[in-house]
Amino acid sequence: MTDSWATFGVDLHLELTGPGLRAGLADALRQAARTGRLAPGTRLPSSRTLAVDLGVARNTVADAYAELVAEGWLTARQGSGTRVAPRSVARGEPEPAAVRRPRRTGPAYSLRPGSPDLASFPRTEWLRASRRALTAAPHDAFGYGDPRGRTELRTVLADYLARARGVHADPDRIVICAGFAHGLMLLGKVLRGRRVREVAVESYGLDLHWNLLADAGLRTRALSVDEHGSRTDELGSEGAVLMTPAHQFPMGVPLHPDRRTAAVDWARTTGGVVLEDDYDGEFRYDRQPVGALQGLDPGRVVYCGTASKSIAPGLRLGWLVLPGEMVGQVLEAKGPSDWMSSSLEQLTLAEFIASGAYDRHVRSMRLRYRRRRDQLVEALAERAPDIRVSGIAAGLHAVLELPPGTEQSVVQAAAWQGLALDGGAQFRHTGVRDGRDMLVVGYGTPPDSAWTGALDALCRVLP
Amino acid sequence: MTDSWATFGVDLHLELTGPGLRAGLADALRQAARTGRLAPGTRLPSSRTLAVDLGVARNTVADAYAELVAEGWLTARQGSGTRVAPRSVARGEPEPAAVRRPRRTGPAYSLRPGSPDLASFPRTEWLRASRRALTAAPHDAFGYGDPRGRTELRTVLADYLARARGVHADPDRIVICAGFAHGLMLLGKVLRGRRVREVAVESYGLDLHWNLLADAGLRTRALSVDEHGSRTDELGSEGAVLMTPAHQFPMGVPLHPDRRTAAVDWARTTGGVVLEDDYDGEFRYDRQPVGALQGLDPGRVVYCGTASKSIAPGLRLGWLVLPGEMVGQVLEAKGPSDWMSSSLEQLTLAEFIASGAYDRHVRSMRLRYRRRRDQLVEALAERAPDIRVSGIAAGLHAVLELPPGTEQSVVQAAAWQGLALDGGAQFRHTGVRDGRDMLVVGYGTPPDSAWTGALDALCRVLP
User: Fold this and answer.
1) CATH number attached to the domain at B109-114+360-461
2) Do the interacting molecules here have an ipTM over 0.85?
3) Mind listing the pLDDT tens digit of every residue in chain A (463 residues)?
4) pTM of the model
5) B119 touches chain A (CB under 8 A)
6) Domain A2-84 class, CATH top level
7) CA neighbours within 13 Å on the CB side: how many for B214?
8) Which of B 409-448 lie inside 8 A of A, CB atoms?
């Protein structure tokens, strides 16, 4: 889901429409590395993953990789995967102008989940909030800040989260971070410092998050996910559990009320911590929002929120609401030099929320996403009536169940037609074997102008 | 130099103007911890440092700390220092409104170095650049970005740095980071990954930086600093050296041309790396700017720049210009989740530079700082003619040599009069014994409105 990853898939897609798959793949990679479109050090997807994505045999990818390693374009190391080799830019030798500002060409459409509709960024309202924030900011806002984040933002967030998400929040227990991943890095350090060795995660989720925990020295163990969310009865002696209670990612179900209670009880009994990833809690369509789990026991649950889905990931703003005794631990993990978020962006978001613009934006996006959700469900009912769709009560994505054995070929067929799709394999924790074939369709991703085309392309590739 | 640190000194100063020093200090600390002004986990300065800063006996501070540890307000652990103890906020018990948005009262004046004049932040021009950036931004600017940073910013930075600092820069070898400290964290990881164990640093500098290297598992060894800058002949088998060639911090001298060559030769001979911290390279008054060392050998020198001194630290924007083979290593150290800088701030800075506003701002600040520098020198000549002042050809601070044995009492006297000052002890690497008595006067720090008062207060406390 990283940017270079997407670029990568893209370049390949363009180059691979002819015969001679292995040679074409090798050529595309060589070209991308030579021109710098693939930056030195970029980690390539595993041959298995890329093969699935491109819909080619795994050996085809493995052979192309091996060829480029032999030529010195790629490096392959145990544990670090396959990467673009460092290259030394010859001093004084300018690269062609075209390379200096690489133009990225993508697939025509993307329905990959994980991004809001970036074309709907509220530019005017954001600029307005920015102007008010800049005008009102005290001089010290331009200096080195409080490592917890600006007090103005923590204060409005505490009110907003209490009102909108049922979070028991206090500005003094909020720490601003540069998005959820940064927050998870800090929490990983804190858990490791508390001698936690293993964290329970959900069997479907993002390997990006599991890898961050692994980087902090924490093993991850996967809880099964069923139609009621994660199987909390599988929780054991782990020191913490990372979960998405309001809207399981990517399966789309809310955690059953009994399991919400069970998760908190587990934490109380074992001294464990629940890390609640509330990535898209604002977007719920058919009934009342599911409040944050954190409200059940603010002393046992860390609430993790983000502006990445509700506004845009480019802002790099997220927040942790912490049990009292963890505030100091997180600040210690941050260290004295980790002031990662721009004060001006923090003040602008504070203004954006305080002025009501945030609520208006979320409401307007909720309507837009719900309309797309409805159109998706209708189109499927008409054009692919055998496909079961689920996880549609909330969020920016839906799960489409596919006939057994078809996931890979559907993703492949879509790629050939210029539609980027993610299958379920993308989100499965290592070791989970019972994977059903499915697509995770991010209907929030395309801009309005591309939505109808993307939906049509999707229907065309479904079995 | 951290914010909590400053707040801390401030609160104490206010409470300590009466008799009963130990009791007053203990009261002030207790009050600050109780109300949350000192956040749980905040590390307190060592009793030695605080004693120097407050101008009280070290035992007075040590006793007050011990009392609060006994009462449970503070914790003291070997290796982790004295910290504010975690406290559990009772659920549902609101804290008084006054505490929720703490008002910070500071000393009347600060002449501590390390900050530009925050009151001069170019609000109007910045907002203008922000508007243009927001209007022109492609949709993908709001998404997860390139871990190297926005290409727009890297492109204008490459031009600017070549023009203004003589840096041999290429957008592909620039990585945007969230300020110098973030860059140094990444470089520390890279060095450690290259099996470097020790880094040479300058015997005067910031312990914040040395601690970041230590956190990465690197020992630091100090090079002596004399009137020609760091003693490069003391470089040995370290894998890297961190230095401030254009303007030694805090001593204020440029590195002698012979030593510039020697540093690069050392790197070539030993395979080492020079980390060039160009924190205030734009501000030079009496002759041509000293170009970046990096221009001598872009394959051996990492250039580290920042907007923290030229515009403001609150932006959290810095940049590394890397030797080709280190780009991949730094991106690997960043990892796939470290997109730490807001895209909008990056695009705004790109606009700010491209439109010429950056040059205009730097020019205008250069005039302002030079005027203050001249006023400082004149005032000293008149009111404290025995004080030798040095390091005045550049930057935002000067060094005032004090009679032996007077540094501590001068800093103390200033604190009692509401003027925050830093003595040389603050910046000395552990183990350096030959410390002369001095003040490091940050004449860039106060707003214009406070400058005359600050200068007057300084002259009054000088011997």
Assistant:
1) 3.90.1150.10
2) no
3) 333 333 343 334 333 434 456 666 777 777 667 666 677 777 787 777 777 666 667 777 777 777 666 556 777 776 677 887 765 333 333 333 333 333 345 678 999 999 999 999 999 999 999 999 999 999 999 998 788 999 999 999 999 999 999 999 999 999 999 999 999 999 999 999 999 999 999 999 999 999 999 999 999 999 999 999 999 999 999 999 999 999 999 999 999 999 999 999 999 999 999 999 999 988 998 767 788 999 999 999 999 999 999 999 999 999 999 999 999 999 999 887 776 789 999 999 999 999 999 999 999 999 999 999 999 999 999 999 999 999 999 999 999 999 999 999 999 999 998 999 999 999 999 878 777 899 999 999 999 999 999 999 999 999 9
4) 0.78
5) yes
6) mainly alpha
7) 12
8) 447
Any idea where the domains of chain A sit in the sequence?
Answer: 2-84, 109-114+360-461, 121-355
Specify whether domain A121-355 bears CATH 3.30.43.10: no
Nearest residue of B to residue A121 by CA position?
A: B142
The residue among B195, B218, B160 whose CA lies nearest residue B329 is: B195
CA B113 to centroid of chain Cα atoms? 8
Mutate to test the interface with B, among A101, A339, A349, A361 (most CBs of B within 10 A): A339
Cβ–Cβ of B343/A87 closer than 8 Å? no
Structure tokens at A271: 């001294």
AA letter at A4: S
Torsion A44-A46-A51-A54 (CA) sign: negative
Of A181, A330, A340, the CB nearest to B178: A340
* Structure-block tokens of residue A279: 């990535």
